Amino acid sequence: MAADLEFLRQMGQHMATTVPQAAALGFRFVSVEHGKGVIEVPWREDLVGDPDTGVIAGGVVTSLLDHTCGLAISSAAYDVTQGPFGTATLDLRIDYMRPAVPRAGVTAEAHCYKLTRSIAFVRAQAWDADPADPIATAQAAFMLTGRAGA
């Protein structure tokens, strides 16, 4: 079990640092467990959507939520006997509740709550300072691709 958790951590670190979009946005792996993942993006001036506000752009938050959902799915669905697989976003609904705090990074946490043979269902939220006061929440469905038997 400890080996599985260590593998999930390595996978999360890989997803946050080597996927080109994640690397370009500066994503940082925070944590992973079976069916859950957490990734953050530190504030950077080049990620600001409106220079007058200093707030991270909504597109960065969207990418962060989508990517964190992928981590949650990977941690829920990975099976050594079936090998690696990909995901394709089928539906991603994001409700923006408020702007991020100026000059603040954003953290996202996702939970894969239902996994079928070919579809994963995920909920996620993003926040700046307090998870109880989210910037945005997401509900998503992803297709599992490249799996044996899928």
Task: Tell me about this structure.
- This protein has 150 residues and is of the alpha+beta class.
- Helices cover 29% and strands 38% of the residues.
- It has three helices and eight strands, in the order H-H-E-E-E-E-H-E-E-E-E.
- The strands form two sheets. The chain has a six-stranded antiparallel beta sheet with strand order 1-2-6-7-8-5. Strands 3-4 form a two-stranded antiparallel ribbon.
- The longest helix has 20 residues.
- The model has no long low-confidence stretch (mean pLDDT 90).
State the gist of this model.
By secondary structure, this protein is an alpha+beta fold. It has helices spanning 2-18, 20-25, 58-77, and strands at residues 28-33, 36-41, 48-50, 55-56, 86-96, 106-115, 119-127, 136-145.
What does the oligomeric state look like here? single chain
Put simply, the count of helices is 3
Largest sheet: 6 strands, antiparallel
Q: Which range best describes the helical content: under 10%, 10-25%, 25-40%, 40-55%, 55-70% or over 70%?
A: 25-40%
Parts with pLDDT < 50 across at least 5 consecutive residues: none
Radius of gyration: 15 Å
Global mean pLDDT: 90
Distance between the termini: 26 Å
- Categorize the overall geometry: globular
| Share of residues in strands | 35-45%
- Strand order in space, largest sheet: 1-2-6-7-8-5
Task: Say how many strands there are.
Answer: 8
Q: H/E series, N to C? A: HHEEEEHEEEE
* SS class: alpha+beta
